[in-house]
Write a structure and sequence with these properties.
This protein has four helices and no strands. It is mostly helical. It has a domain of 63 residues.
């Protein structure tokens, strides 16, 4: 649910002129959202992200949950990388 809200709400909120995001973007860029010289047609990520989310919803593509063994292995790798980085900084 949070992913859907993020994909459809936050990403597209800068297209709404009376929204805080839209007003901020419009004032920073010194151009309107829509119409001649507007930035909305060029905001590719903002248009594509909700479409990709809808595609994932219909096709059932999702992230697979890790097993406990996979999770522990990743934690061990991160700890080893952290130790190596600290050792390199000391040298």
């Amino acid at each position: 649910l949070s992913r859907c809200l993020e994909d459809s709400g936050t990403i597209t909120s800068n297209f709404i002129p009376w929204n805080t995001c839209g007003a901020t973007m419009s004032s920073f860029l010194k151009c309107p959202q829509w119409g001649a010289g507007g930035y909305a047609p060029f905001a590719i990520l903002n248009w594509c992200n909700p479409l990709v989310s809808i595609f994932y919803g219909f096709t059932g593509i999702t992230m697979k949950e890790m097993t406990e063994e996979e999770y522990q292995k990743i934690l061990e790798e991160r700890e080893a990388e952290k130790a190596a980085a600290l050792k390199a900084m000391e040298a």
